[in-house]
Amino acid sequence: MILYKYMSHTALAAVFKYSTIRFTTPEFFNDPFDCAISGGNGASNEDDAGLSNILTAMHYRKRMGVLCLTRNPLNLLMWAHYADNHAGAVIGIDTELAGLECDKENLIPANSGSVVYTSVRPSSFGVKLPYEFARPRDSTILEKIFLHKSVHWAYEEEVRVAREIFPETSENTVSHRDNSYKDFVIPSKAFREVYLGSRFRTYPENDATIQSIRNHFKDTVISKCNLSPTEWKVERKPIDNSSSFFGLFFTDHSSVPPNA
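^ DUF2971 domain-containing protein, sequence as received from the core. Prediction below:
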């Protein structure tokens, strides 16, 4: 299965420099509701059990790392929101080769990670959350916590992979950006595709990234996205390393500042 990750051009350079993918703790996601399961039933305030569940869920948010992927590499909103307003890129990852379908490594593997979009928040009311997860015993509660999102986010067509990245963390641990993620090395062959945005700049840093991918990730197909002349969409064109298009696009425009 090939799934996709939107990112900035600087993240693209880091991914291919180290051959890594990043799992992030949900505390630092852009949606404050994300992985924050409710402890009540909507009819009354949370009881002691509900409050205990909320604290346990907060503990999960500190210990667990989530890799957020999508099925669609040509989503206009995703390009605008997560790929530097089309100046970034999208990578296509073979989830099996990357170890993202492995039950031993992941509490939620990619083949079980389709996000469910709902209009009502998931609740732990009437259920005591376990302090430690185990699959398949806790599959239902794992789905409620990590795979349920508001219908507002349905455009993302998201698929998630979740694994424990900070097992030593307690509910009293103070989180900050430096301990909010963990990078994992994956095989170079797992990087199957790269889509460059329609505004991907042709300055030296980006040129160097693309040349590095060409040199060290020879099985990775690189494409350039362009705006359709007739429809509200972007279209991709594979870049042939030997074609004139490659030479024309990746030239040294050092006089053009990156943020111009």
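The chain has six helices and eleven strands.
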